Task: structure prediction
Amino acid sequence: MSLSSRRILILDQNEATGQALQQLIASWGYDVQFENVLAPSLESILKADPTVVIDSNSLAADDRLSVLRDLKTQQSGVPVILLAESGSIDNAKHAVKEEFAYHYFEQPVDADELRVVLERAVELTEARRENEVLRRELQDRGAFGELIGSSPAMREIYSLVEQIAPSSASVLITGESGTGKELVARTIHQMSPRKDRPFVGINCSAIPESLMESELFGHEKGAFTGAASRRPGCFELAEGGTLLLDEISEMPAMLQAKLLRVIEERSVRRLGSQKEIDIDVRILAATNQDPQEAIAKGTLREDLLYRLNVFRIQIPALKERKEDLPLLAQYLVTKLAEKHSRPARFLHPAAIEALQFHAWPGNVRELRNVIERAVIICSGEEIERHHFAPYPIDQRERSRNEDTITFPVGTPIEEVERQMIIRTLKKTKNNKTRAAELLGISLKTIHNKLNLYSERGQLDAE
Result:
């Protein structure tokens, strides 16, 4: 977005000072509108659709601050910069403290300081508006529950879920740990005719082998030591609904054979019982292993795979669908802020950029943990890059690709040069001659720059 498309609204009853300020800000490349009014209405401000409001009127009397209070409640969330005379500083401080003003300056205003604050306020508005776009996208995708993303890979999954959900066919869901396999299973259940019946999930890798059979099929009183009463298994608990067998390749081979019989006969027998119980359960299975590799290793029966793999859904790793990161991160911010009653509402563009450069070996589960921590420690509406510390966002990625340096937009040229020299010396193991050759500069320049960085204490600042 160009600067000229960012409208700054100036409210000032003094035409001379208002026009002077208008000319100054316009010289910075902004589209500036000046209103020579004493007490503007909320409607007139919203009609102007400003990116930022600069107001020197509302501090004249307490009652005029009500317009700013009302403006804060609007969905647009336009930041207001107040210009205060010496006698209205307390009102300005109160407005900022109550968060219906973004910043205040005591007049006369320093132009350089105003320009910096104005740029930050514009970035804030743009981030908020991008946040609203993401919210609308999330609402449009509500039919898929907690499955979030608009990448081609995710759209293909949505299409498969829509086709598969109405049937009772078994589905095998594959993908790395943390990609959201259980969410896909729950979405299939929620979109199926069985949605009003139970959804039961069991993690085959988390239950001891000695207890697995009882968990699956149930037991009668006295069936084994400690069986003090009759207990139904997961199949009975999921009657009429859906059973998810997560990490199916971790199930003991003996139980895989019994599971195969249950699928074929549609009945179970509790431990210690001779009675067969008919079941009506849709079976979904999930694994983080490649099914064919699991068969080759002997951890998954081939005949069981054929029974479960009527349909297969492969969930992509997060690193393979990074275009979904902004939408997914925003969803998590909204959900987790509500869970923890925190004020965070959106992510600063630099924070999103940092997320994009991380490798995400833990996939969506890892992203959720990072966002949850940031939401908890963030004291305002905007999550910034530093809220991810000490979590190594993009440090892990950097360690995998040490020949690449990424700089945020706006990084000073001098700092880019410093980091390039320091990193190249690191790459050449402090061989200054080789570093100078790689950088295309003289050896003398390398020495001069290092002396300068040493004087400034910048040699270890990277």
